[in-house]
Every structure is written in structure tokens, then in C-alpha cells.
Fold this sequence. Notes:
The complex is a heterodimer. By secondary structure, chain A is mostly helical. Chain A has two domains: 10-152 and 225-350, no CATH class; 153-215, no CATH class. In chain A, 62% of the residues lie in helices and 1% in strands. A two-stranded antiparallel ribbon of chain A has the order 1-2. Chain A is globular. Chain A starts with 9 loop residues before the first helix and ends in a 16-residue tail after the last helix. By secondary structure, chain B is an alpha/beta fold. Chain B has two domains: 10-244, Rossmann fold (3-Layer(aba) Sandwich), CATH 3.40.50.300; 298-514, P-loop containing nucleotide triphosphate hydrolases (Rossmann fold). Chain B has 22 helices and 19 strands. Chain B has a six-stranded mixed beta sheet with strand order 6-7-8-3-9-10, with helices on both faces. The longest helix of chain B is centred in the middle third of the chain and has 18 residues, at 182-199. At the A-B interface, α6 and α7 of A face β6, α4, α5, α14 and α15 of B.
Amino acid sequence: MSRLPRALHPGAWWLWALGLATAASRTTNPLLLALIIAVAGLVVASRRGDAPWAFAFKFYLWAGLIVALSRVLFRVLFGGGDTGHVILWLPEIPLPGSFAGIHLLGPVSAEYLLAGLYDGLRLAAMLICVGAANALADPKRMLKAVPGALYEVGTAVVVALSVAPQLVESVLRVRRARRLRGGRQRGLRTLRGIAMPVLVDALDRSLALAAAMDSRGYGRGTGATRPVRLATGTLLVAGLLGICVGVYGLLDGTSPGWLGLPMLLLGLLVAGFGLPLAGRRVRRSVYRPDPWRLTETLVAASGLLPAAALVLTARVDPGNLYPSLDPLGWPGLPLGATLAVLVALLPAWLAPPPVSVLGPARAVAA
Amino acid sequence: MTGGMYGGVIGFEAVTVTYEDAADPVLRDFSLAVEEGELCLVAGRTGVGKSTVLGAINGLVPHFTGGRLAGRVTVAGLDTRTAPPRELAHVVGVVGQDPLAGFVTDTVEDELAYTMEQLAVPPAAMRKRVEETLDLLGIAELRRRPLRTLSGGQQQRVAIGAALTAHPAVLVLDEPTSALDPTAAEDVLAAITRLVHDLGTTVVIAEHRLERVVQYADRLVLLTGSGTAVSGPPAEVLVDSPVAPPVVELGRLAGWSPLPLSVRDARRRAAPLRSTLADAVPPVPAPAPSDPTRGPVLAARDVVVRYGTVLAVREVDLDLPAGEVVALMGRNGSGKSSLLWALQGTGTRHSGSVSVGGVDPAQVPPHRARAHVGLVPQTPSDLLYLDTVGAECAQADIESEAAPGHCRALLDQLVPGIPDDHHPRDLSEGQRLALVLAIQLAAAPAVVLLDEPTRGLDYPGKARLRQLVRALAAEGRAVVLATHDVEFAAAAADRVVVMAEGEVIADGRTADVLVASPAFAPQVAKVLAPQPWLTVDQVAQALTGVRA
């Protein structure tokens, strides 16, 4: 197994991260959740590169914190926790009859607050797992790994992603230029003064881009008949929808069982028919495709293992995964689940060090 | 590979192109054969159809642009009537005017591979060609860099590389050096000549700045404006061309035949001219009568401009006296634009002071600031948002609290004859620049700042702009031109300020600063060095003096 610096297949990182997120979705145990966040953070710290998107991880951490805190804040705001150990007495604000059933403020119990905190922590952990995948795998390389049939969609996404910053730049430039004319900075007429040059600029750019893509061979030799296009399109969209619903079902522990794994497999099957069919009409090659080697399998497995372990434990012995709030008590640290989550830490050593984007083939100091 | 009936790798056979809504064809009965391995330069005044010729080579005209093409265009035996641009991608590589607008991916390596991916080149071959191209263009150290973080010259070289990886027989470049500073332009041209000499690629270039390219060209296609063209060896075609680089004009003046195309050619012929001029003094435009008691119109002290951690302008002092034209030069990113915007008051100024007649333009509202300092930005069209020239002028009168018709009168003084009902987008670059200048002049500013005003202007357009700028100075205004165009700066400016890394590194009379500089010396100065001549006009005036 080569340990030379290279970019891991983005799919491996995503499978690892989604596995970890699935594990997080199956527990409200704050110790386990903190452990999952720590594992994700450690792997990111040791294996992310120096590309701009790699530094987005801290925004996910902040977002996680905000999610967890706002869950708690809402519990305080909308009160209703008067059973158990009340730790905070707030005056309840009466609402008119039509809002009956909704409390504003009022007594807040420790159980009620903790339930909110645990729930918020779970959401935060899942969010941070997704953030970890984003920091570790170049989102655009992921688009490169999509099958040929989805190439057009991938191109559209890449173009859209590069247009957005250009549009912002254009707005700033025109706004600044507008001041040169001494124009007013507010009002509908100003909007026109800014929108017109920006739109004209955007239109010119899109035309230039379209001409460049045409000149460079985009859309060469794709001659498929209409029924074939229709069939492949339907299969693809249905398959992708199935996959999305399946992943949702898997992540949301409360959804019916058939919505999870069975739906995911069904989606994969339908898309599996559609992709080769659609891919047949695409004559294109991929520059430096990311290979899928043993390391990729191991990284993916190290994320999927905790997922499987926690999903199974949640079925068999949920006690320790959902710590009791009545009676209040310190959550325990279940040995099996802890070990399973710690397995996800392995990529910090298993995965090869990333490659620097700034210099030629330099490894980021690991 | 079989060519058309003219035998070249590119063949235009009696081509007539008419765009929709156009009364007259852009090209009329246009024939041309470009031989394999030639570097063919397409020149002519603005709007004569250079881009149309270039676009027709890979079928963008008419497949993409619309319009009607009669006749036949063939490239390496393929007819553009039957092959749309995408089916010609393996034969013709195209580099547009703005490389950034044509990038599809976001890193250098991916961009180089893009065309090959479309052509389904096997991954192993792709990898090899990308490495070769990185070396060929000297951009190997940039391979993983995001395209947006590259400088203009680097972007242009990446765009050329991206067209080259598909191993096209023909490379088409539209104004490849127009936005570049002299040094970056040299890099790009060196890469292009290497392709022609080492790989035998056929290259077709359209370029306004003939002085940069013409010496490398094997063939010059001069579009005359009536839809037809003269084509042949550059030294012959340039004999009576309306567009010509200074070195050619000097050759015409001195009566050299064949005409010199490069500084080296001219210098070897110039010994007699130098001895004739030995005792003459280069005439300089008389500075406008200034009142020394009044001091400068604009005085800037310790101006600092900073974007985040990047220091764009570092403690710059600048005095602008009335009636003087100052050229602000320096490589891309040296802080020229940032300084102009800071002087105008709209751009950020971190510290320091700017005073125009006792007023700091950054401290007064925008409509008052522009009555002190007027700025025409790099993309003048950012200031235009109405449907017609007339509406823009009327709006400018309201904004400047001027009498109705004032801006229109200014525009007629600058460039007469632009109809009121034209859409600003349909104007030529020069006309649009004049319109924006008129809008800014309507506020009667004492200081006029122009950021890269020569972009897209041909030689007659630049000559017109030079007269305009001199006229503004003669009215007692202070004028600053930020420009890469050394020939224009040499002809128009009284004083040159050179910036590097945000600092002023040279400030003095035009002749003193430009003559000795390797990058910024105009062609005439290089030919006649060590004598301090800057422009052909100066030499012409001196010669009439000597002969009389």
C-alpha cells in the first residue's frame, strides 16, 4: 500500500463521512457524539490539503455550534418543560386564544434542556461529518468521478460555481463605477443603473464561454435518438431520487425501515441500468481519474463500520445510545460503540498525505 | 491532408459574410490561403472584420454568431459549412480576447486537459501532453493553481496551452497581448514564436499593437474596411497601410526600403539618420502656462491603499500641476489602478491625504467629488446603463447639474457625429470611451484620470485620443493616464511616473524616464539611442527643420 502523497478518491472520503454521520444519527449520547466530532476533526486536521475549500471546515464547526445552541434556546423560548427538575423560572407570557398550546417562556427543567442539547448535538455532529467530507475531498473532483452520463450536469454545476464569484465581482465593480457618476446609492433607478451593466457583462461572459466551449469540442458527436434519451433520462432521475430518499431514510432513525437501505439499493439498481445506457452515447475521457485502491476501500470501511455497529446496537440494545433523562443521570460510555467510532480515526494514518495546490507536487506537512 | 483549391492549410475562397441587421457585408469576396507553419497577422482599423476572419476559421462564424457566409472556408481539408466548431476542435485551437471568460474549469491542469477530454484522448496520452505543454509554455510551477489567481500573462499562456494540448494544426489568437504589460506580452509572444518555429504550428493572430507582433509575422493580412484585404509579406503590405507601428513609420520617413519591421532591422539602418539628427533637439509640446503661485491642482501625500493583507499602494506622494499630462506606468498589479481610485476618492484609501484645491474628494459626497476629480475606469461601459447615447448625455447633465445639452456638446467636441439614438453597446471602443469621458467632463473636473484608455484603440484612434488628452491639458486640467502602451505614453505625456509593488520608483520628464528603460522605451528611442527621441512626429519635425 503506497504511502506517497496523493489525493484520495473523493468517494472514499464521502463514504467515510456519511458512515460517521449515520453513526451519529443513531445516538443522543453526548459522550459518543463528542467523540464522533473529535474523530472527524482529527482526521481533517491530519489529512486536509491547502486548497481554499479545505479551510471551510471551521465554518461547519461554527454552524454546528449554532445549531446546538439554537436547539437549547428554542426550548427556553417556547417553554413547556415544567416536569422534572426545574432549574430556571421565567415568567410565562400568555398568548391569545388562537395560539393555545404554544407557550412563551415559563419554567424550564433540566431534563427538557438536556433533551434539546442532546438533540442539537446530534444534528451538529452530522453537520460536522459532512463538513469533514467537504474539507477532505475536492467537491469538484467528486463531480469528475460521476459517471459519463451525468457529465452535462457536472459541467453545468462547475460553470455555475465559477459564475457566482464573477457576478459578485461584477456587481462590486459596477457599484463602485456608479459612484464615479455621482449617482445615488439607493432606489429603483439605482438598481437599474447597477443591474443593466452587470447583466450585460454576465451575458457577454456567457456568450464568450459558450463560444470557447464550442471551439474546444464540448458536445462533440452525441447523436442519440429521442426515445433513448427519454428512457435514459427517466431511469437516471428516478434512480437518483431513490438514492436520495434512501440516504435520508438511513440518516433519519425515525423513518420507516423500508425507506432506508431497501430504497437506497433500489435507487442504485435503477440508476445502475440508466448510467451505462446513457454513458454509451458519451465519447469522452477523463484526465487523471482518481483510482480506487485498497486504501480507498479501507478508508470507506472505517467509516461504514461505526455506522453498522451503531445501527445494529440501536436495534438490539438502545439503552446506552439514548441516555436516560428520567431519572437524570450521567450518560455511560458503551464500550462496543466507542471502539467502533474509534475505528473511524484510522484514516488519519491510513490515508496518504494530501498534495499541495500551491507548489509542484509538494506534500502538505503532515 | 488536402487543402482547398488554394493549397494552404487555411483557405478562404471568395468569402462574403453578412451579419443579421447589417446593411453591408463585413467581408466581401475575401480570399486568402495560409500556408502550413506560417505566422499570419491580421490587421486593420477597428471594426473592419478582424474578429470575423478569425471566427470563420473554426466555423464560429456563422455557426455560433449567426449571419450569412457565402463562399467556402476550409481548414486542413475540412469545410466549415459541414463541420461546426466542436467538430473542428482537433484541428483549430482558439484563444479568445479575454482568457478568463473562456476558461471552463478552475485549475491550470484541468484547463489544459479539457479539450483532450472532449476528444476522448486516452488518459496516458493526456497526461504526457499536459506535462509537455506545461514545459513548452513555462507554466509548470502553476499547474495546481486556481485560474483566477493567475496574472494576465499567465492566464493568456494557460489559454494558449489549453488550445495546444489537442495538437491542432492551426492556432487562432484574438488580441493575445492587448491587456498585458510589455514584459508579460514578451513572454506570451516568445511562447507563440516557439510554437511556430519548433512545432510548425500555423498561427493566425489579430492584434492592434503591431509594434509587438509584426516582426514575427510571415504574412500580413490588412483588412481595408471595404470588406476586402491586402495580403503579403509585412514589409510590402505596410508601405501604405493606415495602421503601422512606429518603427515602420520611421522607415517611411527616412525612406528605407524594404521597410524595417523590428528595432534591430531599423537600428542597423539608422546610422545616417542618427548623424543627421545629432545636433537637433527633440521638440517637446510646450507645457501649458501654469501659475507657479497656485501650486499643484492635486496634491497627494503618503497615500496607502491596502486590501486585507495586500499592500497595493505604499506611501505615495504625487503632485499634479495644471496643464500637465502624466503617464502612470508599471507592470500589471503594481498599484496603478488602486492609486487612481484612491486619488478620485471613491476607492479605498487607508491613510494619507489627497487635496484638490483644499478639498479632500474622499470626504465629500460622490457627486461633489466628481466635480473635482473625474475618473474613466478600465471598463468604461460600467458607467453606462441607459438605452441611447442621447439619454446617457441627458442623465449626465442632470447628475452634473449642468445646462441641458452640455454633455452632448462635449461629446461632439471629442468625437463628432455619434447619433443620439445609438445604443451605447453598439459604439466602437473609441466612441464608448469618448462618451464616458464626455459624461465625466460634464462635471468640469480639474483633474482627469484615465485608466488604460488605449485598450481596443487602433493607431488612428490613439492619435485622436492623444489630441484629446493634449486639449484637456491645454484647458488647464491635470491629466493622468495609467497605461501599458509605451508608444502612447511617449507621444502623449509630459511626465512619466513608474510604479512597482505599490511604490513610485521613477518620476520625471517623459524622455528622461522612458529613453533608458529596457521595458518602457518606445521603438523610436531604441532605434535612435542614445539620442533622446521618443516619437516619429518629433523626428519628422526635426528633419523638416534640418532640411530647411
